[in-house]
Amino acid sequence: MHRIAVIPGDGTGPEVIREGLKVLEAAAARTGFRYQTETYDLGGERYLRSGEVLPDSVLEELRGFDVIYLGAVGHPEVTPGILEKGLLLRLRFELDQYINLRPVKLYPGVDCPLKDKGPEEIDFMVIRENTEGLYSGMGGFQYKGTPQEVSTQVHMTTRFGAERAIRYAFELTRKRDRKRQLHLVAKTNVLTYVHDTWWRAFNEVGEADYPDISREYAHVDAACMWFVKNPEWFDVIVVENMFGDIITDLGAMIQGGMGVAAGGNINPEGVSMFEPIGGSAPKYTGQGVVCPLAAIGAAQMMLEQLGEAEAAERVEGAVVRALESGKIKSLSAGRMGLSTSEVGDLVAGLV
Ligand code: IPM
Ligand code: MN
After folding, report:
1. Average pLDDT over residues 191-219
2. Which of 7, 79, 88 to mutate for ligand 1's pocket (most ligand atoms within 8 Å of CB)?
3. How far away, in angstroms, is 24 Cα from ligand 1 center?
4. What single DSSP character describes residue 146?
């Protein structure tokens, strides 16, 4: 019996999570796995009502689940940072979800903004380190509010943190067995301390334990260029936290947009959390017009993590068939030609 904590969260989060759960139920009916869910009303509304973001007691409860299924975090009436840091980042850090796994895969039938690129050319995985770098929260102000104001935000990097992400990436590259090629994306020509740690860890680990995987390197700015010009060059990418945040939004666009981009915050030895990577989209909230395929893709990744490979495969197959059916006109909010729940029904019916 899998135990799933559900945090629908803010904005359109609840609308898309509902469809993901619908598809999960269909997959369970098909393949016979059993699960139970418990829903937590964390997010902007609760914060505005009670001042609570993530009570310690709730965090402790969440540690007891097998996985967490998260909608979106971010509320227009809450100062930026409060929910992001207090809920999303706190969960990532406290649960030590040190891998942020983001597939960039263009499915057949999805509009791609790149000329002459199709599903053959766009199929790679980004492993974003998820607990360090500029996200560490280290830093602060001195003389705040004066003309002498100083602020720092420390790019905290540990050999341990870089190495565990790098090892995960090498393992995944081997398991994928596609091009057997791993790219490190960084900025070794400017961040000559923190990215030197990454560079040495990448080469030492690769040379010692993964001689069968070819090691490639791209500066982050060049990687942005290649994502657009030659996405087919990539198989697996490993990247530090902040650069990973940025390049995966670009990755989401070339795979068809936020409507289809999913990700997993993974602790291979602990509690992992799966989410559509787009935000809470306040302007579309409650209209039933946002695409739930990203949330459904997150549910698929969650099934993989739970060891339900067959169910995960069925969900992906259903998404592909739904897209091939031509019934979904676009993955952009408001242009699908179907409502959020109609897309959920369509996919659930094909599982
Ligand atoms: C993401 C988001 C978060 C991040 C924000 C909401 C803190 O952009 O998951 O990519 O920066 O990691
Ligand atoms: Mn982001």
Report:
1. 98
2. 88
3. 25
4. S
Look at phi and psi of residue 143 and say left if phi exceeds 0, alpha if psi is from -120 to 50, else beta: left
Sign of the CA dihedral with 59 first, then 27, 168, and 258 last: negative
Tell me the ligand closest to 279's alpha carbon: 1
pLDDT digits (tens, 9 = 90+) for 229-251: 999 999 999 999 999 999 999 99
Q: The pTM is what?
A: 0.97
| pLDDT of amino acid 80 | 94
**Given strand 272-276, what is the order of strands in its sheet?**
35-39, 2-9, 67-72, 272-276, 262-266, 99-105, 123-129, 236-239, 181-186, 214-219
Compute the distance between CA of residue 238 and CA of residue 162 in angstroms, rounded to an integer. 9
**Closest residue (by CA) to atom 10 of ligand 1?**
245
pLDDT in tens, 157-197: 999 999 999 999 999 999 999 999 999 999 999 999 999 99
What structural domains and CATH numbers belong to the chain? Answer: 2-111+256-350 (3.40.718.10), 133-235 (no CATH)
For the record, the structure tokens of 98 come out as: 């040190």
Q: What's the pLDDT at 209?
A: 98
Where does the pLDDT of residue 322 fall: very low under 50, low under 70, confident under 90, or very high at 90 and above?
Answer: very high
Cα(75)–Cα(281) distance, integer angstroms: 9
Amino acid identity for residue 223 in this structure: A
How far apart, in whole angstroms, are the C-alpha atoms of residue 347 and residue 351?
6
Closest ligand to 100 CA? 1
- The percentage of the chain sitting over the pLDDT mark of 90, rounded to a whole number, equals 99
Distance 30 CA to ligand 1 centre (A): 34
The per-residue pLDDT of the chain, averaged, comes to 97
Given the residues 249, 283, 327, 329, select the one marked as catalytic: 249
Does 126 sit in the ligand 1 pocket, CB within 6 Å? Answer: no
C-alpha 167 to ligand 1 mean position (Å) = 23
3 state SS of 276? strand
